[in-house]
Structure formats: C-alpha cells, structure tokens
Specification:
Blueprint lengths: L1 E5 L11 H16 L15 E8 L2 E9 L16 E6 L2 E5 L1 E2 L6 E7 L5 E8 L9 E5 L2 E2 L6 E9 L7 E14 L3 E9 L2 E2 L4 E5 L2 E8 L12 E10 H14 L16 E3 L8 E7 L1 E7 L2
Length: about 290
C-alpha cells in the first residue's frame, strides 16, 4: 500500500516582542514614504479555452467552459456559452449536455457514469458561440475504475514502532478488494463541514486488500465530538499526473523549487495545431464514509 500526501501551508512571520515592532515602525514609514508607483505592462498571451468537468457513478456530467483573462483582471473569468457538448460512453453517444439558463457556460447532463466504462466529451463551438467560434474539441477518454465498499471506519491511537505515534484512521472493507491495474484512489477530507481544499491523498496498489489505515495528518485539530467525513474517488494515472503538476505549480516560489512547467489537460483541439485546453474532464467512481471522534 502506497499513500502519497500533498499539503500546502502558509508561513507566517511573527514578532513576539512589542519593542521590536516599535523599532521597526520608523523604518517602515520611511520606506513607504519613498515608494513610487510603477506600472508594469505585461504582454498578454493568446486567449485559451478552459474546460473543467467531471462525471461520476453517483452524479451526471457537469462541465464549465471559460476562457483565460488578462493578468490584472479582477472580475470573473469570461464564460463560454452556446457550446454543443456530446457525452460518450465507450465511444457511443449518451446524451447532449444542457447549458444552465441561469449560469452561462455551465453545462450538465442527466446520466451518471457506470463502473468499468470509459467516458469522453466532444465540444463543438459553432458560429453562434460566444468564443472560439468554429472550433471542435475532444477529451481523451477517462475510465471509471471499480472502488472498494467501506464497511466501517474507526480511529485508533498507535504508540508502538515502526509507525509514528499518533491517531490513525482505519477502514474495513465490506469484502476483499483487488486494486485494478492503473487505478488510483483519492481521499478528500472534511472536519466539521470544513473542507481541506489543498490536502489530497492518493492510494494505489496492486493485489487484494481487506482493510487499510493511514494517519490523517489532522491530529492536532481533532477534538472529542468532531465529525470527520471522507470522500474516496477513483483516478486514472493521467489525472493523477495532471493534479500532481497543478499542486507543484501552486507550491512554487522558493529558491530551489522547480521552474513552472506547462500544465496539459486532456481536452484537445481537433484538426488544428495540437492545441490543448486548460483544465480537465475526469471520470470517477465515488464512495463516502465518516465517523465522530470519541
């Protein structure tokens, strides 16, 4: 069993002694008084299509189409309306997605995914579309892998080696589960209805498994009576690579961080210059579990 954890934290600079703050104040005022406003002109890159969408075995497809915006733009990114989006299952057409009349650029379907099937979308932007008129886009198929059925969840405190001391979440499967080749499983966590937006775990293994445990890395936050909810979803290798690159880009900025790299999604322009839209259309199986801390 391999568990990979991605977490990002904000560093805070704290000055404990008040007298140090008093000494720094004149210097700060001097620097502020000498500031000049410099306007920097940036060359804006070409307009790009952004596709963010998902289909699961418990929810129909939902896609948001938008475009990139100028660097200093503070408003919402422009939405792309008037698109014709066809959902496919194993290369067979399933349904046309409907644009939300109250939310331009958001498209939804009515049919959830089935485990073991592959899904992709084809996006036609005709002459009546708001952006990228006359272009046709297609996503690379995503497979919905089988997922384990969870029978019970409980919290244990481990104080003996080789595991680090701390609280561990234990999951007992309803039946032994064989990890499919190429499948990954993502865990998203909530503590008292607060979502850990930047915490992601991926579990991937091959073989049979009846249970597993992991340290949730929120030990310092758990108190008696707290409610912890977890969402498990399958993910393809391609989607894991995409998310890993996104996390790395979000966490760059240090002296020794790797330089930014292009983030390629899975929606490609057809009949053109191999242009790839930003964003991703994913397909997944989903299971949920939770418990209340004693």
């Amino acid at each position: 069993m391999n568990v990979y954890f991605f977490r990002f934290t904000k560093m805070k600079l704290q000055i404990a002694q008040l007298w140090k703050q008093a000494l720094l104040l004149p210097l700060v005022l001097f620097v502020v008084a000498c500031e000049d406003v410099i306007e920097v002109e940036l060359n804006e890159g070409p307009l790009q299509l952004v596709v963010n969408g998902r289909i699961t075995d418990d929810a129909p497809a939902r896609i948001t189409l938008s475009t990139t915006a100028p660097f200093f733009e503070t408003g919402a990114t422009p939405r792309v309306s008037g698109a014709l989006i066809q959902l496919y299952e194993d290369d067979n057409p399933v349904e046309m997605l409907t644009e939300d009349p109250a939310n331009a650029g958001t498209y939804f379907g009515n049919t959830p995914a089935q485990i073991g099937k592959n899904y992709h979308v084809e996006i036609d932007l005709p002459q009546g579309a708001s952006h990228f008129q006359g272009t046709f886009w297609k996503s690379i198929p995503e497979r919905v892998f089988p997922i384990f059925e969870i029978d019970s969840v409980y919290l244990t405190f481990i104080r003996t080696p080789p595991l680090p001391i701390g609280n561990y979440l234990n999951f007992q499967f309803l039946r032994p589960f064989t990890f499919p080749q190429g499948a990954n499983y993502r865990i998203q966590r909530e503590l008292n209805d607060s979502v850990f937006l930047q915490d992601f775990l991926f579990i991937f293994d091959e073989g049979d498994l009846e249970s597993f445990r992991f340290r949730p890395l929120i030990n310092e936050l758990i108190e008696p009576g707290d409610t912890i909810a977890l969402t498990f979803s399958s993910a393809t290798n391609r989607y894991v690579e995409y998310l890993t690159l996104v996390f790395q880009q979000l966490n760059t900025g240090g002296l020794f961080d790797p330089p930014p790299a292009p983030i390629r999604g899975n929606v490609q322009l057809q009949g053109g210059n191999n242009q790839v839209a930003l964003g991703y259309f994913s397909a997944a199986s989903v299971r949920r579990a939770g418990f209340r801390a004693p």
